[in-house]
């Protein structure tokens, strides 16, 4: 399995600079907001989203260095992602993420909501200062999609009529939209053709969907230590993901357990057992593999380089997390 470090080798120095810059960019005058931001950006995430932006930048500018606007776009991408996580943790009442306390558990919900709002506000300001209307439109769409995805998830809790298509749309809104639109935006800043820009969008969309499906598989198959949050937490909160939706097709009693929201003793244990006994996880693996393979096909417009190869390897890495 490829490690994240070797995977992002072409942009390793760029990512180090990004981590330093993020804390400076926040620049919150209020000590609690600054402490919250510092805690978030020091939480040791994989930085997959800004890494993809930087790899696209390097893959589309083969001569000379990437521009300060590419670097700023990568920083904005990580700020938007982090802001959405802070708000997600409040909505989900999560106490840990990546094995560290969430902002809402460390401070309180009020501080967490304000910290998320502040990060969204800062990202919007820096986005406007890129002075590129197309890029502003692409990233503004992401913030709208994220809110829509969170609303979809909230309204469809414990809803066993949810379809795989509904799930994929929600997954696009919550996860893939940011990767798709920021990859396209990086291409736009490089001055690529509209055809190549659209290919970069579809690459990001498919990688993002594969990434989310794999995360949802790991919620059933990985330990709490690996996940950095309690295993099975999606099902507990009524968020029905691909493994559950596929399992429902085979295990009718699972519907009963979900619709009564696991109120009886052992309901959750039974539900987890039914998902594991079914083909739900295997079908979800096949779905993730389909999207990872589709992503790579959209990179054929790019010239061969260390960075374009790394973008191909990202799709393989996403899948490797479940094997």
Structure summarized in a few sentences:
The chain is mainly α and 323 residues long.
Order the strands across the largest sheet as they lie in space.
1-2
Indicate the percent of residues in helices: over 70%
Output the CATH homologous superfamily.
Farnesyl Diphosphate Synthase
Q: What best-fitting shape do the alpha-carbon axes yield? A: globular
**Whole-number radius of gyration?**
20 Å
What multimeric state do the chains show? Answer: single chain
According to CATH, the fold-level topology is Farnesyl Diphosphate Synthase
Question: Which spans of ≥5 residues are poorly predicted at pLDDT below 50?
Answer: none
Order of helical and strand elements:
HHHHHEEHHHHHHHHHHHH
Instruction: Report the total helices.
Output: 17
Strand content: under 5%
Estimate nothing, just give the exact number of structural domains: 1
N-to-C CA distance: 9 Å
State the name of the first-level CATH class. Answer: Mainly Alpha
Record keyword descriptors for this entry.
17 helices; 323 residues; Farnesyl Diphosphate Synthase; mainly alpha; two-stranded antiparallel sheet
């Amino acid at each position: 399995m490829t490690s994240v470090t070797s995977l992002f080798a072409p942009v390793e120095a760029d990512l180090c600079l990004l981590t330093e810059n993020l804390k400076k960019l926040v620049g919150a005058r209020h000590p609690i907001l600054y402490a919250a931001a510092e805690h978030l950006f020091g939480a040791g995430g994989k930085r997959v989203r800004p890494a993809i932006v930087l790899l696209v930048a390097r893959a589309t500018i083969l001569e000379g260095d990437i521009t300060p606007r590419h670097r700023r776009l990568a920083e904005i991408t990580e700020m938007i992602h982090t802001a959405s996580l802070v708000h997600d943790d409040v909505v989900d009442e999560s106490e840990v993420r990546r094995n560290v306390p969430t902002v809402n558990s460390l401070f309180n919900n009020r501080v967490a909501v304000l910290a998320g709002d502040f990060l969204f506000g800062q990202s919007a300001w820096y986005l406007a200062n890129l002075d590129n209307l197309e890029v502003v439109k692409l990233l503004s769409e992401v913030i709208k999609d994220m809110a829509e995805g969170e609303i979809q998830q909230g309204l469809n809790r414990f809803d066993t009529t949810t379809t795989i298509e509904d799930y994929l749309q929600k997954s696009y809104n919550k996860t893939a939209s940011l990767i798709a639109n920021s990859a396209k935006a990086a291409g736009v800043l490089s001055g690529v053709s509209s055809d190549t820009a659209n290919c970069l969008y579809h690459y990001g969309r498919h990688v993002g969907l594969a990434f989310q499906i794999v995360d949802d598989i790991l919620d059933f198959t990985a330990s709490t230590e690996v996940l950095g949050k309690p295993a099975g937490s999606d099902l507990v909160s009524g968020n029905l993901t691909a493994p559950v939706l596929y399992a429902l097709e085979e295990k009718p009693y699972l519907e009963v357990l979900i619709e009564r929201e696991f109120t009886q003793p052992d309901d959750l244990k039974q539900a987890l057992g039914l998902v594991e006994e079914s083909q739900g996880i295997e079908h979800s693996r096949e779905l993730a593999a389909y999207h990872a393979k589709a992503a790579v096909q959209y990179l054929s417009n790019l010239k061969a380089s260390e960075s374009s190869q790394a973008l191909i390897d990202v799709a393989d890495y996403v899948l490797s997390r479940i094997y």
